[in-house]
Here is the input.
Amino acid sequence: MSKLITTPKGKAVYPRIDNPDTKFNEDGVYTCKLHVSEADYNAFKESYDAMFERAYKKECEEKGKTLRKAASSPVRVTDDGDYEIYAKQVAKRNTSKGLIEFSVAVYDSQGNKMDSAPKIGSGSTLRASVEPSFWFVSSQGFGCTLRLRAVQVIDLVEYGGGNNSESFGFDGVEGGFVAETTDEPIPVTAGDSEDSYDF
Here is the structure.
């Protein structure tokens, strides 16, 4: 039987945790891609691979033959060389017992459960609680999906703000121009208004 496992902390990439993605599935899917350090990735993958091989061996024994393994994996190195752990969870599913709805529990850095999920955006530092779900499809082979059950927000970067340099893709450049900051409002001269400027 599958059990919950906790990922190492990593940087979230386009997470969909507060509201599911309905682009390819009208029922919605919660997703979280975490980019972790190489050392953390190797340690997590070693544990994951051992679990996968046990489940694979059992499935082969039940089927009475050697099965093909699926080409995709939720624990992978991306084309850009990032060490990625990918988890997802459908938002709802129709079953023989009726419609079942799912959500992803969200905890803060101190382990306190939050009543509602904040707008967790790319760049947030998270850990995820995932449940390995092994499957076999003849056209794809034997594989695994990491079901996203909960996340812990260690450092929050909210999406939709667009109010800092990181949200526009700018990072610091050493030795460059540094603006003077002030809390005083910028004076507006007579005749100045938003309508005066052609953007």
Remarks:
- Confidence is low (pLDDT under 50) at residues 182-199.
- The longest helix spans residues 38-63.
- The domain at 5-161 is CATH 2.40.50.140 (OB fold (Dihydrolipoamide Acetyltransferase, E2P)).
- The radius of gyration is 22 Å.
